[in-house]
Recover the amino acids of this structure.
Protein backbone atom coordinates (compact mmCIF):
# COMPACT_ATOMS: atom_id res chain seq x y z
CA UNK A 1 0.00 0.00 0.00
CA UNK A 2 1.29 3.44 -0.93
CA UNK A 3 1.73 6.21 1.61
CA UNK A 4 0.36 9.63 0.72
CA UNK A 5 3.96 10.90 0.49
CA UNK A 6 4.78 8.25 -2.14
CA UNK A 7 1.74 9.26 -4.19
CA UNK A 8 2.67 12.93 -3.81
CA UNK A 9 6.18 12.27 -5.16
CA UNK A 10 4.76 10.31 -8.10
CA UNK A 11 2.43 13.18 -8.99
CA UNK A 12 5.27 15.70 -8.93
CA UNK A 13 7.08 13.76 -11.68
CA UNK A 14 4.14 13.89 -14.09
CA UNK A 15 3.73 16.80 -16.51
CA UNK A 16 -0.04 16.85 -16.05
CA UNK A 17 0.39 18.00 -12.45
CA UNK A 18 2.80 20.79 -13.37
CA UNK A 19 2.23 24.14 -11.60
CA UNK A 20 0.01 22.69 -8.88
CA UNK A 21 0.75 23.84 -5.35
CA UNK A 22 1.95 21.49 -2.62
CA UNK A 23 -1.46 21.71 -0.98
CA UNK A 24 -3.21 20.84 -4.24
CA UNK A 25 -0.91 17.86 -4.82
CA UNK A 26 -1.58 16.70 -1.28
CA UNK A 27 -5.31 16.94 -1.92
CA UNK A 28 -5.03 14.84 -5.08
CA UNK A 29 -2.82 12.33 -3.24
CA UNK A 30 -5.59 11.80 -0.71
CA UNK A 31 -7.90 10.58 -3.52
CA UNK A 32 -5.56 7.78 -4.65
CA UNK A 33 -6.46 4.10 -4.41
CA UNK A 34 -4.10 1.27 -5.35
CA UNK A 35 -5.04 -1.50 -7.81
CA UNK A 36 -2.96 -4.55 -8.76
CA UNK A 37 -3.63 -6.25 -12.10
CA UNK A 38 -2.07 -9.35 -13.62
CA UNK A 39 -0.99 -9.67 -17.26
CA UNK A 40 -4.04 -9.88 -19.53
CA UNK A 41 -6.44 -8.10 -17.18
CA UNK A 42 -8.30 -5.04 -18.46
CA UNK A 43 -7.91 -1.62 -16.91
CA UNK A 44 -10.92 -0.42 -18.87
CA UNK A 45 -12.62 -1.10 -22.19
CA UNK A 46 -13.46 1.21 -25.09
CA UNK A 47 -16.93 2.64 -24.47
CA UNK A 48 -16.77 2.30 -20.67
CA UNK A 49 -17.76 5.17 -18.41
CA UNK A 50 -14.92 7.62 -17.71
CA UNK A 51 -15.13 7.51 -13.93
CA UNK A 52 -11.43 7.36 -12.97
CA UNK A 53 -8.04 8.28 -14.35
CA UNK A 54 -4.95 6.28 -13.45
CA UNK A 55 -1.19 6.54 -12.99
CA UNK A 56 1.02 3.52 -13.62
CA UNK A 57 3.23 2.97 -10.60
CA UNK A 58 4.77 -0.28 -11.87
CA UNK A 59 4.40 -2.34 -15.04
CA UNK A 60 3.35 -1.85 -18.67
CA UNK A 61 -0.05 -1.64 -20.38
CA UNK A 62 -1.22 -1.85 -23.98
CA UNK A 63 -3.57 0.74 -25.52
CA UNK A 64 -5.79 -0.56 -28.34
CA UNK A 65 -8.75 0.64 -30.38
CA UNK A 66 -11.32 -0.93 -32.69
CA UNK A 67 -11.92 0.29 -36.23
CA UNK A 68 -15.35 0.58 -37.91
CA UNK A 69 -15.23 -3.17 -38.66
CA UNK A 70 -14.60 -3.89 -34.97
CA UNK A 71 -11.06 -5.10 -35.68
CA UNK A 72 -8.80 -4.38 -32.70
CA UNK A 73 -5.51 -2.53 -33.31
CA UNK A 74 -2.69 -1.94 -30.84
CA UNK A 75 -1.83 1.77 -30.66
CA UNK A 76 0.94 2.14 -28.10
CA UNK A 77 2.30 0.91 -24.80
CA UNK A 78 2.46 2.94 -21.60
CA UNK A 79 4.93 2.46 -18.77
CA UNK A 80 5.70 3.47 -15.21
CA UNK A 81 4.78 7.06 -14.36
CA UNK A 82 2.44 7.53 -17.32
CA UNK A 83 -1.23 8.45 -16.99
CA UNK A 84 -4.33 6.67 -18.32
CA UNK A 85 -7.86 7.91 -18.95
CA UNK A 86 -7.08 11.59 -18.42
CA UNK A 87 -9.20 12.72 -21.40
CA UNK A 88 -12.32 11.75 -19.48
CA UNK A 89 -11.47 14.41 -16.91
CA UNK A 90 -12.12 17.06 -19.57
CA UNK A 91 -14.85 15.57 -21.75
CA UNK A 92 -16.64 13.16 -19.40
CA UNK A 93 -17.27 11.02 -22.50
CA UNK A 94 -16.93 7.20 -22.71
CA UNK A 95 -13.46 5.68 -23.04
CA UNK A 96 -12.02 6.13 -26.53
CA UNK A 97 -9.70 3.10 -26.29
CA UNK A 98 -9.14 -0.09 -24.33
CA UNK A 99 -6.20 -0.71 -21.99
CA UNK A 100 -4.88 -4.13 -20.94
CA UNK A 101 -2.03 -5.04 -18.60
CA UNK A 102 0.97 -6.58 -20.38
CA UNK A 103 2.63 -7.53 -17.10
CA UNK A 104 1.82 -7.33 -13.43
CA UNK A 105 0.72 -3.72 -13.05
CA UNK A 106 0.27 -1.49 -10.02
CA UNK A 107 -2.07 1.42 -10.71
CA UNK A 108 -3.22 4.38 -8.67
CA UNK A 109 -6.79 5.45 -9.45
CA UNK A 110 -8.28 8.91 -8.94
CA UNK A 111 -12.08 9.41 -9.05
CA UNK A 112 -12.94 12.06 -11.62
CA UNK A 113 -16.01 13.20 -9.67
CA UNK A 114 -13.74 14.57 -6.95
CA UNK A 115 -12.39 17.19 -9.36
CA UNK A 116 -15.88 18.45 -10.24
CA UNK A 117 -16.51 19.59 -6.67
CA UNK A 118 -16.56 23.36 -6.37
CA UNK A 119 -13.81 23.30 -3.72
CA UNK A 120 -11.50 21.50 -6.18
CA UNK A 121 -12.39 23.55 -9.25
CA UNK A 122 -9.03 25.37 -9.36
CA UNK A 123 -7.27 21.99 -9.37
CA UNK A 124 -9.56 20.78 -12.15
CA UNK A 125 -8.87 23.85 -14.27
CA UNK A 126 -5.07 23.52 -13.93
CA UNK A 127 -5.20 19.82 -14.82
CA UNK A 128 -7.45 20.48 -17.81
CA UNK A 129 -5.11 23.20 -19.11
CA UNK A 130 -2.09 20.91 -18.75
CA UNK A 131 -3.88 18.04 -20.48
CA UNK A 132 -4.92 20.30 -23.36
CA UNK A 133 -1.34 21.49 -23.79
CA UNK A 134 0.03 17.95 -23.80
CA UNK A 135 -2.58 16.79 -26.33
CA UNK A 136 -1.78 19.72 -28.62
CA UNK A 137 1.91 18.77 -28.47
CA UNK A 138 1.08 15.13 -29.27
CA UNK A 139 -1.03 16.14 -32.26
CA UNK A 140 1.71 18.41 -33.53
CA UNK A 141 4.23 15.58 -33.20
CA UNK A 142 1.88 13.18 -34.98
CA UNK A 143 1.39 15.56 -37.90
CA UNK A 144 5.13 16.22 -38.17
CA UNK A 145 5.81 12.48 -38.18
CA UNK A 146 3.28 11.92 -40.97
CA UNK A 147 4.82 14.70 -43.07
CA UNK A 148 8.34 13.31 -42.56
CA UNK A 149 7.27 9.78 -43.48
CA UNK A 150 5.62 11.00 -46.69
CA UNK A 151 8.27 13.52 -47.74
CA UNK A 152 10.02 11.25 -50.24
CA UNK A 153 6.72 10.23 -51.78
CA UNK A 154 5.68 13.86 -52.08
CA UNK A 155 8.88 14.69 -53.95
CA UNK A 156 8.93 11.72 -56.30
CA UNK A 157 5.27 11.03 -56.87
CA UNK A 158 3.42 12.31 -59.90
CA UNK A 159 0.39 12.63 -57.61
CA UNK A 160 1.95 15.50 -55.68
CA UNK A 161 -1.29 17.48 -55.52
CA UNK A 162 -3.14 14.44 -54.16
CA UNK A 163 -0.61 13.99 -51.35
CA UNK A 164 -0.80 17.70 -50.59
CA UNK A 165 -4.56 17.38 -50.26
CA UNK A 166 -4.20 14.37 -47.94
CA UNK A 167 -1.75 16.26 -45.72
CA UNK A 168 -4.11 19.22 -45.60
CA UNK A 169 -6.94 16.96 -44.43
CA UNK A 170 -4.68 15.46 -41.73
CA UNK A 171 -3.73 18.92 -40.57
CA UNK A 172 -7.36 20.02 -40.42
CA UNK A 173 -8.27 16.94 -38.38
CA UNK A 174 -5.42 17.65 -35.96
CA UNK A 175 -6.48 21.27 -35.64
CA UNK A 176 -10.12 20.27 -35.10
CA UNK A 177 -9.21 17.78 -32.37
CA UNK A 178 -7.02 20.34 -30.66
CA UNK A 179 -9.67 23.03 -30.85
CA UNK A 180 -12.28 20.71 -29.32
CA UNK A 181 -10.01 19.98 -26.36
CA UNK A 182 -9.22 23.66 -25.91
CA UNK A 183 -12.94 24.46 -26.13
CA UNK A 184 -13.69 22.10 -23.27
CA UNK A 185 -10.97 23.70 -21.16
CA UNK A 186 -11.16 27.40 -21.88
CA UNK A 187 -14.79 28.02 -22.86
CA UNK A 188 -15.78 28.74 -19.27
CA UNK A 189 -17.14 32.27 -19.77
CA UNK A 190 -15.48 34.24 -17.02
CA UNK A 191 -13.93 31.43 -14.98
CA UNK A 192 -13.92 33.44 -11.76
CA UNK A 193 -17.71 33.69 -11.70
CA UNK A 194 -18.91 30.57 -13.47
CA UNK A 195 -18.34 26.93 -12.63
CA UNK A 196 -18.30 24.42 -15.48
CA UNK A 197 -19.61 20.94 -14.67
CA UNK A 198 -18.56 18.44 -17.40
CA UNK A 199 -21.06 15.90 -16.06
CA UNK A 200 -23.97 18.17 -16.97
CA UNK A 201 -22.42 20.05 -19.89
CA UNK A 202 -23.51 23.29 -18.26
CA UNK A 203 -22.29 26.08 -16.02
CA UNK A 204 -23.57 27.56 -12.80
CA UNK A 205 -22.76 30.73 -10.93
CA UNK A 206 -20.59 30.56 -7.86
CA UNK A 207 -22.29 31.76 -4.71
Amino acid sequence: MNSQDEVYNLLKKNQIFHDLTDMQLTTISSFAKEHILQAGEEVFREGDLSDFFYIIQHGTVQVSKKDKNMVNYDIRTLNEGEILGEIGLITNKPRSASIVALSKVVLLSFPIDKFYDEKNFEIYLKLAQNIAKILAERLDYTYTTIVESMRDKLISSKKFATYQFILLIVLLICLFQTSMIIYHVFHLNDVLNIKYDPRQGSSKMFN
